[in-house]
Amino acid sequence: MAEKQVKRTDVNVLGEFGLIDHLTKTTRLTNRSTKKGIGDDAAVIDNKGFLTVVSTDALVEGIHFDVAYTPLKHLGYKAVVVNLSDIYAMNAIPKQITVSIALSNRYSVEALEELYQGIHLACKIYNVDLVGGDTTSSPKGLYISVTAIGQGEKDKLTYRDGAKVGDAICVTGSLGAAYLGLQLLEREKQVFLANPDMQPELEEHNYLIERQLKPEARKDMIALFAKNQLVPTAMIDISDGLASELFHLCKQSNVGAFVEESGVPIHPDAQMQAINFNMDPITCALSGGEDYELLFTIDSKDIEKVKYLPDVYIMGDIVEQKDGVKLHTKGGNIHPIKAQGWNHFEES
Amino acid sequence: MAEKQVKRTDVNVLGEFGLIDHLTKTTRLTNRSTKKGIGDDAAVIDNKGFLTVVSTDALVEGIHFDVAYTPLKHLGYKAVVVNLSDIYAMNAIPKQITVSIALSNRYSVEALEELYQGIHLACKIYNVDLVGGDTTSSPKGLYISVTAIGQGEKDKLTYRDGAKVGDAICVTGSLGAAYLGLQLLEREKQVFLANPDMQPELEEHNYLIERQLKPEARKDMIALFAKNQLVPTAMIDISDGLASELFHLCKQSNVGAFVEESGVPIHPDAQMQAINFNMDPITCALSGGEDYELLFTIDSKDIEKVKYLPDVYIMGDIVEQKDGVKLHTKGGNIHPIKAQGWNHFEES
Asked: Does the reported pTM lie above 0.90?
């Protein structure tokens, strides 16, 4: 007993993914309907061929958001969207959500109304129903945990483990903007704290700020896939940064990746802001996180289908696992990509 | 804008149920598959006749539990069980759960392991699969939100709104014990704080303590219903206290209730401890909460089926709504029952 009390491993030692692996490695799946448990963007429940896809994710004050610069309406919206993004990443359609909120008495009914306005708006825009949840007190801070439930078709669901050598690696949208938006907001917060009379200078950065505060999930892309009869071989949404997600996908598919820097889409505003911050734009794109774009692989026979899809970029190829995960820079060098998400960004 | 900043309604003004009503009254259900949204023990999703039942509930440190006397293994177990209870209350079978945990760095990996041991144990005992979730940091405290997903059959699901005049009111197990267990734990905590050398005197109260720290959901009862081809007309689980749940059921069914005090099951240990605490046992049973027993109504034709079911007590009748919700005391008086849950118990 005394020995047990002595042993104390700090949670940060294992990191988020190590921790989840560690805690769930003994998980046994016993129900026949459980087709896919922990380890993908969402779990899959198979009821006689009818597939239900489920994902849960929480946003915690002081960890995932700072109420100093996060409008509560945006926060409610984002809490829903980041979960819907996980359902889309399975090539499935979200239909319902439940929301669990804990908040301290620092928040008023009016604050909670704003939060719910954002939740309702996301439900409306993404055509999902808020079907349950609870609202409770917390001694401190605000927690929002959302569970999204979706529907998928057996031959269309995409997992992280389906990429194979020769597949093309694709990504939607643009990367790095949400991270740079966060840096801008943090900078303005520091300016404000130093001198509360200063007005924030954010208008010219609308795009970057919005990518951080009010991200969107790629519902449109899943619809485009269906319209073009395209089923990716593997897919994952980009919440922790392209590099980190690429490693998840490669690890689970037992493959490597060769990415062209010139193929990684970066918005001009993000490009410019990275340079203003003395950062390398490609590093922001690789490790920035919170983009909620889709990273996916396609069979080479489908390249023609993808070439003309709006906002989809082919940025490389799946290679043998032994060849690792590498970036071919614009300068002609080949670097191994590091599997770091935005949590580790500061240390890089 | 200035006006908006002035208006600040304290969350407690509306109460938990008032607050949820207020925030979700504008909720629109748009998906055909959403059969039942907010307002019952669980939501119901109907996919071509295949019914999925979903419930979410959170436990928050300092609000729902005190780590001073709550072993983390029990806490993990309880967090799962209280959600499974909601699924059983729909007369459905839970199959999967997702778990979202936020915790401060005061908790070590070993602490989290204990918590997960309890989660895994509950999964094993109730035959559900842990299929997803996330573990994240919190600036302070421990927060566990669980979503339970179950399966039901169309003609067997029981809602809160199906009770009709003439139905018998039944309850499982015994009531008030979990509340009295909590009072004992609180008392011992105060004794310990006053004098840390004092050893807690809890052995003789094992039953009450266990009802508080490690409640069980009535999986057995749902199996008995199926075996006896009994489908309650309405059902709800008792998390906030019999009185509060009876009001929910009556309100949604547009009926009243007439309850015999002599029919309300109270365990002898609870009876005795209530008296030791100078409390009225029936008040503890009505308003104590956290019993996780089932309150249900049955058609009068099914009374014979219920009479011989173990651990089921017939305690009254459903009456007209205009006749209210009343208790016929052992002393022969008739009192209106107050709709108070355990949160309001101290004020009574």
From this structure: yes
